Amino acid sequence: LFNFTSKILVKIMRELAVAIQNANENVSVMETINSIQKANFKNVFVQWYDEDWEYTQKQQVEKCKELGFNIIFAHLGYQNINSIWEEGIEGDKLVERYKKDIKDCKENGIDMVVMHLTSKKQAPMYGDIGLNRIKQITEYAKKLNVKVAFENTKIKGYLEYVLGNIKDENVGTCFDSGHYHVHFDDEFDFEFFKDRIFAIHLHDNDKSGDLHLLPFDGTLNWEYVMKKLKECNYDGPITLELCYRYDYLNISLDEFYKIGYERGEKLG
User: What is the pLDDT of residues 129-152, one digit of tens each?
Assistant: First the structure.
């Protein structure tokens, strides 16, 4: 009798996800949602910006649920976010606003939110004032069993400061490839964020701006980025944050998301 050990190589394709994008040009967000479904996406994230849109964020969530999408997280708004680092009532108001947003998301079945720590190219220096407010937000989220993923935006240091001082298991980061490329000049301490990358925003640019192009339509080194994400033990969906504008308007919305799905598969 002989004992044989068979080794079977299995190719596992990552789940794909895409943003419900309210900034798509010349189309409604409901048209966007329908095109995303036609492209065969099963996972999405929503923009919870508290904006005066034609279709409210809750209406968008209801439509996503109606179509059977899995909503992996909500991207919260960042209006006036720089005030969180300054003394004054504006920063205090942000704490209450984000607590409300997190509560609303939880009630809508969304268990993770993505937040910015700054906006624009300049912000007040990080320090205890902002950190204490952020702790109030993340501790409230923890009570509701909601994860908070802070995004790398335009200014270095803030993300490291917050995650270096908040070690709770529900607090991590959302890696944005476009910001990494255009704002951080491809510099990011992946090792520092190992095991704490909860979410990703994948899109491309040519370093002329935050263009939200389809992957491989810009100059980002995708092989390197995907390798580093794997080394960081990121195990979530391949999540695209695309925008239908610029030269993409020369193709249909359906074709745009069909190509997006194919590019996502290539990354996965």
Answer: 999 999 999 999 999 999 999 999
Name the residue among 56, 23, 49, 20 with its Cα closest to residue 35. Answer: 20
pLDDT at 14: 85
Tell me the whole-structure pTM to 2 decimals.
0.94
| Euclidean distance between CA atoms 245 and 214, whole angstroms | 11
Q: Assess contact for 107 and 65: CB atoms under 8 A.
A: no
Contact call for residues 115 and 98 (beta carbons, < 8 A): yes
The CA R_g of the chain, rounded to the nearest whole Å, is 19
Query: How high is the pLDDT of residue 8?
Result: 42
Helix or strand run (H / E) with residue 73: strand 70-76
Of the chain, the end-to-end C-alpha distance in Å amounts to 42
Distance from C-alpha of 81 to C-alpha of 122, rounded to nearest angstrom: 12
- What pLDDT was estimated at residue 237? 98
Strand order from edge to edge, sheet including 112-115: 197-201, 171-176, 147-151, 112-115, 70-76, 43-48, 16-19, 238-240
pLDDT tens digits, 204-228: 999 999 999 999 999 999 999 999 9
**Element at 171 (helix H, strand E):** strand 171-176
Please check whether residue 131 is in contact with residue 165, taking contact to mean a CB–CB distance below 8 angstroms: yes
Distance separating alpha carbons of residues 97 and 21, to the nearest angstrom: 22
